[in-house]
Every structure is written in C-alpha cells, then in structure tokens.
Amino acid sequence: AASSNTEILGISDPTTLASVLADGVKKTVSDSRVDVTYEPGFVPAAPPAMPNIPPEHLAAMIKDTVKVEILDGDIGYLKIQHIIGEEMAQKVGPLLLEYIWDKVLPTSGMILDFRNAVSGETSGIPYIVSYYTDPEPLIHIDSVYDRTSDLTIELWSMPTLLGKRYGTSKPLIILTSKDTLGVAEDVAYCLKHLKRATIVGEKTAGGTMKMAKIKVGDTDFYVSVPVAKSINPITGKSWEITGVAPDVEVAAEDALDAAIAIIKLRT
C-alpha cells in the first residue's frame, strides 16, 4: 500500500514518515500494539541479569513496588506494580513471606490492585495463581506461543509453594484500569475464568506477553511487533488487543471502594 502511495513516500522528515506509517499499519492490521518508529542510534537493551546483591537488598527493592495494608473489615490489600519471575521469587521468597504475605494471609478477603501494574515476568504467573487455588488437581492456567522459537509453553498451577495458600473459599478481587498491562492482564484473565476472582474497575490495556523491535533493512526505522501469544485453555481466546473486561465496571479511582463493599457484603 505504501509503495503505491507516492504522497507518503514523498514525506521527507523521517519522524513524520514513521508516524504516518505507524498509523497506517495499526489501522490495516487492526492491532494497536504494532508501531513504526525512527530511532537513529538505537541500541537494543540486553536482557536484565539477576542482580548480584544480597537477598535482603533485593527484597527491599521489591517492597518498593508492592504496597501492603490491612483494611477495615479484615481485608488484605496488595498493590502490585511489577510481577516478579520465578528466579527472583526463589531468591527472595522467604523474605517476601515475612514482609508481605504473612501479613495478609489471615485476612477474611483480599484485594489485588493491578491498576498500575505495567510490567512482569511470565514465569511469575503460576506463582500468583497457585496461591489462590488448591494444590490438587493441577490446573492448566495458560499456554504461551513464542513465535521466535516456534514453541508453546504450558503454564500449570504449582503443587508446592513457599508458605501457605490463601485458598479458594475467601473472596478475592482484582482491581484493573485502562493502564493495566501485559503479565498482570494474564493473571487477571486466568483467575477470572477459573472463577476464583472478581475483576473490578476498567477494561485493561490489551497489551501483549512479549514485544520485539525489528530493524528495517539498513535504515534507522524500526517495527515493533508482538512475538508471543497467550491462549487461555478455558476460553480458547486471549486478552491481548481486546483487554480483560471487568465483572464490575467502575472508574479506576472508584474501584477500591467498590471492592471493599463487595467483600464486606460477601463475608
């Protein structure tokens, strides 16, 4: 389409050209995640390595991304901005149990606040889901197809965990907003369709599990595309692009009050 459109090819400013192409691609493929950018001097980021620092320092860093409170009515509240992966969880797990989990475990209901959760590791999904499900039978939580490796990874609930499970009988509510993105969307979608959690708030962003930035030939133009796909075994569908629809739709700023009211009613 671009090659036959001489008006587009006549745009001399590369940043403007990238913007016009990006808009055209998004509309053509109906996928808002795809992007075209002009980035001279772009250096691909290396995968972050596990910091070689003491576990207690790592735990302190993680605590900065997690807020824990016990609200009126014996309701546990966890505000999570980043979902840690398996490697990090194994390294700092005992400290997180002491600082965070053991405080909310005895509560009569829990709220997970994902309204500002915009990053996370895929390997952390089974950890979170397993704390709110039974140890047996194991549950097929999700399947993630990675196009770069042409492999599908199945995510299953875990039979053993550090610390005790929250269980399946106490109310669990997940707060979402239009900014909730990626791995947090997957956790919310899984727990919703396992009928373990009630989603309260706004429809989520409809992000992706994994993005790649691909250089276009010998130029400074790049195309960002999703290279992995989540396929839920229960619905056969994905939360990507469309987002996770709330069970109770309210403005993000009102979601916490609505969740507290729901839990008090149920308990």
UniProtKB/TrEMBL annotation:
UniProt superkingdom: Eukaryota
Keyword Chloroplast listed: no
Gene Ontology molecular function, alphabetical: retinol binding; serine-type peptidase activity
Protein's recorded name: Interphotoreceptor retinoid-binding protein
Annotated SUPFAM superfamilies: ClpP/crotonase (SSF52096)
CDD domains according to UniProt: Peptidase_S41_IRBP
Organism for this UniProt entry: Rutilus rutilus (Roach)
Gene symbol of the encoding locus: irbp
Classification via SMART domains: TSPc (SM00245)
UniProt-listed InterPro entries: ClpP/crotonase-like_dom_sf, Tail-specific_protease
